[in-house]
Amino acid sequence: MQLLRRLCGIQATSGNEAKIQEYLLDYIQAEKKNWKVQPEIIHGDSFQHCIILVFGEPRTAVYAHIDNIGFQVRYENQLVKIGGPRTVSGYKLVGNDSQGNIECELKVDDENNALTYVFNRAIDRGTPLSFKPNFREDSQYVQSCYLDNRLGMYNVLKLAETLENGVVVFSCWEEHGGGSVPTLAKYLWDRFELKQALISDITWVTEGVHHGKGVAVSIRDSGIPRQVYVDKIASILQQHEIPFQLEVESSGGSDGNELQKQPYPIDWCFIGAPEDLVHTPDEKVHKSDIDSMLKAYRILMDAL
């Protein structure tokens, strides 16, 4: 879990993904010699802070977004949300500006619907702030801020170790409306005509999706993938005795929703471990669900 711990400690609010892109590129360069297949690494100005890894002769792409929720300094001591973080007075926030490192405290005024910070000096206007990392692990659970979606990234980095044919996509901005997927999807369509995608992201523990019961395979959230594709995935996982839970929600979304809006016939399915305490500093995932997520992706990328 040391890789996951490191990923959770990197600040990368939507629109500010440079640091985590740099970490990923360094990690890939250092580790790829140990992977079964050496990927083509695609990045640069045309892709902003996104990264594409191409292995062998791909049939399916896996998308994992690299940004996280957080806050941005407005005027005086005001804050505005980046994405949809939970807001509780006392949450510790970290970042840095022209004057140095920051560790401040979130203050919530419900009556006036206002968010502010408490700190011993003024913070530069526009500074992004993230939850202070506090990675915890026991025999059953992992708990930290930003398991959504550092765990999705961890999954695809582990997948890359043995992947022979496929594409791994690290996307940006997902938590704050998306925006990178159309360019990425077009590139992969124009070059490979890829018609299949999996979304390596983290979902919610609900009354129908529980800790320790396996990775969640989403039949729908605010978007609806093709049922025949979801059924095919479920059948493959059943054949290989991988624990999974079918999810049906009316809200929420992912890079899959953006894929559905593109002018290409791309099948997609969200497959991810469920977490509790979503979008807080204390997101919590069962280790057995992480294990089933890792196994599911290895099998699906070979079988689809």
Give the domain tally. 2
Give the N-terminus to C-terminus distance in angstroms. Answer: 28 Å
* Helix-strand string: HHEEEEEEEEEEEHEHEEEHEHEEEH
Gyration radius, in Å: 19 Å
β-sheet strand percentage: 25-35%
Name the structural class.
Answer: alpha+beta
The profile of the biggest β sheet is: 8 strands, mixed
CATH architecture of the largest domain: 3-Layer(aba) Sandwich
Give the spatial strand order of the biggest sheet.
1-2-12-3-13-17-15-16
In terms of per-residue confidence, which ranges show pLDDT below 50 for 5 or more consecutive residues?
none
Helicity range: 25-40%
Estimate the global geometry from the Cα principal axes: globular
CATH fold naming of the largest domain: Aminopeptidase
CATH superfamily of the largest domain: Zn peptidases
- What's the mean pLDDT score? 97
> What is the number of E strands?
19
Task: Give an account of the 3D structure.
The protein is of the alpha+beta class. The chain is 27% helix and 30% strand. It contains 7 helices and 19 strands. Strands 1-2-12-3-13-17-15-16 form an 8-stranded mixed sheet, with helices on both faces. It has a 6-stranded antiparallel sheet with strand order 5-4-9-6-7-8, with no helix packed on it. Helix 1 (2-8) packs across helix 3 and helix 3 packs across helix 7. The longest helix has 17 residues, at 287-303. The mean pLDDT is 97.
